[in-house]
Design the sequence.
């Protein structure tokens, strides 16, 4: 909600939200609205797992702030752009296959706990 109504440092909406998407987000997520309401993070393709989410991010239709930031970093921007660079399907990278590989790889990351190793957060956005 802070991204829509109280974005730092000046308040108001996040200026990186596409101006065509902003009214739709505000309508779907009013202040003091239903906190259980779920908004698809993939605009116009919410029920399908496909490359459309990357196209949305590239075009400024990122629902999540973390997705929007992907285009602001030159390394991740190059990675996103690589999925659209080729028209020949035989050499084009597959977002779906790469996503599956990355999820498997992340699943192998061990939990680091104990002194000076890390902690499991009780609240995701704050340290214990």
Sequence:
């Amino acid at each position: 909600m802070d991204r829509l109504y109280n974005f730092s440092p000046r308040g108001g909406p996040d200026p990186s939200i596409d101006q065509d998407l902003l009214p739709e987000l505000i309508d779907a997520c009013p202040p003091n609205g239903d906190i259980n309401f779920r908004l698809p993070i993939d605009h116009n393709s919410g029920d399908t797992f496909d490359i459309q989410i990357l196209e949305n991010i590239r075009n400024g239709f990122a629902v999540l702030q973390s997705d929007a930031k992907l285009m602001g970093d030159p390394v991740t921007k190059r990675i996103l752009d690589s999925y659209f660079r080729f028209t020949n399907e035989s050499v084009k990278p597959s977002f779906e296959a790469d996503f599956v590989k990355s999820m498997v790889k992340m699943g192998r990351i061990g939990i680091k706990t104990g002194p000076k190793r890390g902690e499991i957060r009780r609240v995701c956005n704050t340290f214990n």
Q: What stands out?
A: DSSP finds six helices and no strands in the chain. The two ends are 23 Å apart (CA to CA). The chain has a mean pLDDT of 85.
